[in-house]
Fold this protein.
Amino acid sequence: MHKINDYSKSREYFERASKVIPSGIYGHQGPAEGCYIPVEAFPFFSEKAQGTYFWDVDGNKFIDYMCAYGPNILGYNDSDVDAAAAAQRKIGDCITAPSTKMIEFAELLVDTVATADWSFFAKNGNDVTTMAVMASRAYTHRKKIIFFKGYYHGVSPWTQKIDYAGIIEEDVCNNIYLQWNDFDAIQATFDKYKGEIAAVIGQPYMHGNFKDNTLPEKDFWQKVRKLCTDNDTILIIDDVRAGFRLDIAGSDHYFGFEADLICFCKALANGYNVSALCGKNFLKNAVSSMSYTGSYWLSAVPFAAGIACITKMREQNIPKLLNEKGTKLKEGLINTAKKHGYDLHVSGAASLFYLRLADDPTLMLHQKWIAECVKRGVFFTSHHNHFVNAALSDEDIAETIEIADEAFTEIKK
Amino acid sequence: MHKINDYSKSREYFERASKVIPSGIYGHQGPAEGCYIPVEAFPFFSEKAQGTYFWDVDGNKFIDYMCAYGPNILGYNDSDVDAAAAAQRKIGDCITAPSTKMIEFAELLVDTVATADWSFFAKNGNDVTTMAVMASRAYTHRKKIIFFKGYYHGVSPWTQKIDYAGIIEEDVCNNIYLQWNDFDAIQATFDKYKGEIAAVIGQPYMHGNFKDNTLPEKDFWQKVRKLCTDNDTILIIDDVRAGFRLDIAGSDHYFGFEADLICFCKALANGYNVSALCGKNFLKNAVSSMSYTGSYWLSAVPFAAGIACITKMREQNIPKLLNEKGTKLKEGLINTAKKHGYDLHVSGAASLFYLRLADDPTLMLHQKWIAECVKRGVFFTSHHNHFVNAALSDEDIAETIEIADEAFTEIKK
């Protein structure tokens, strides 16, 4: 039997944090915003990380299935990426003129990503999704953007919801929200707003929160691609979350189509701070015409890290490896659930699996099961997809299934 | 006499960059956007940096007065900041749960920055200026924002101009642009839009491009402060550029008033990638209510670097030191110009000096003089304020003045 974690220090630190930081911990890593449900099961602050594990401030060790919400793809503190970054750090990082590492990184992405004729680098996923929408408007001289309900494209006002704090009608009045996989609705919208749609923006499949993740239906993307081409509308794929966990050449490539613009962040440099917009040649001038930059955007260390990360991911075919690991875990979890008489739904790509215990529509049973896993050292979250990294071993998977087993026993009581 | 730089390798790399990166080099660090005028005088790519110098890919050494456009405040590769960052890097950076370094950094800023009751961290200056505007709207339930003409607050659509590529009317239709230092116009605008103005956003003084920088007139900020308070309007200071180069407690403190929200980036961690919004307690709930985060925002390494940077800046009173160095340089340059019969205007704070040779209204003579300086190893730019860092020595200042002297001789020919 696994021990049950104590979180007293995490709670003390959280009290201290709450005095000087709004929400104490903000965003998806914080207890307030929904990922940490039920909150009492979760640690709040980490002490250190290595490979597929992190340790919290109370000394509890976790097999980490959130991977910093994506960035950890090779394992925390990957020695190859860290060595490349450290070598660059010694000679310079954020300098008045950029390093040629920027060129090497752009060339590597152009060589790796199927749709990429060029690359542009920034810091947040949000920087490049925003840039993609602006570039679409600059190129088409149109305003309207089609989104798929359940999307997440960052935090800029244009991508938030009208009822969110600080958002005004003007921020979102050109947004059209359609159902995922509903091609007829897209077709009808193109007919209704003929010549007015600047872009369609979508994640490669629907990996939203609080519901089963959904892959594209057969030919869905191919039909959207054709509709966009026929109407001179830009097709933007937001691969910030799924990027390099489905296909090293981009998740559009995985699903058999080509985006006009594709956005990367998270797994691009194993946690070093960089994002990228890649795109087709016909949009290069539109991007060049924009006024778009930031204080650290040309820093060399994240480029060096990104080169090492992409190189290693190519050499080891990391997307394939992560999906094998994810599949093994998924099958183990489903079987364990079945043994206890539960119906565990595992949706989305295996490398980004989403969990839902289907025996209780209120989701309370699911949350209880997740809580019992986390308290025993498996870091799952209740209503967000998970992330697999390359350092996850067969032993880790076996231990995860053991803990899941104990957790099922516990919730049956 | 100083040698004249050769830039052949920079040019070759730029050709290579242009194939895979829109504009080759984008933003203020690129030749296309205005800072590198005249372009033939400037290097494009750096090889390494140390202290107050960087070396380009052709082996030319520069005394660097742009400091990566701000981040370099203690000197490139500062050993204290780098040691703190390296120690944190070993144990972890971007992890599923944040490090307590985040709390320490927030506490240090609250202790250091006069107006700070709390801190929130992000990655770009633009992240925190955007957040400040959103928080103002969330708090006031109003839309309109007052800007000062000549401003720069980042690259999000709300802060760009209507004629910029990719910007639509809805992005900027709630912006009101007023003349810097014109309090009567602000008063009149408040009267006209009674109860509609969410925020006034301004840099602590006008350090815009292409014209002499202008300090606030006597009591200007005090009057704006009172007007905002009387009308429940949020006063936002964008200290991304000037922060910690005027006053360790914030540039509002330097000018004798208190902002409600203050934005930092650049000099916050000597080039490590972090930005911060600090603010007053009455806005803490508004910030907590927002949905606002990013993939790398809780990474520990930049927090460790920021703690080391702020601590050192406090111990050594860096703003005072930078202004002394800047004043020495400024006086030397003005006298050298005078010796040649030229009238050099040096405006703004001494630590952020702006240069203009006033003998030719076309600015061509000024550009020619700057070019001759750069070609001899002093990295100035023509129409952007400069930045002083703590590693700049008296010998560097003396050499700069010598080179400026040669450049004056050259442009007289």
User: Anything to note?
Assistant: DSSP finds 13 helices and 13 strands in chain B. The CA atoms of residues 151 and 208 of chain B lie 6 Å apart. Residues 318-339 of chain B form the longest helix (22 residues). The longest strand of chain B covers residues 197-202.
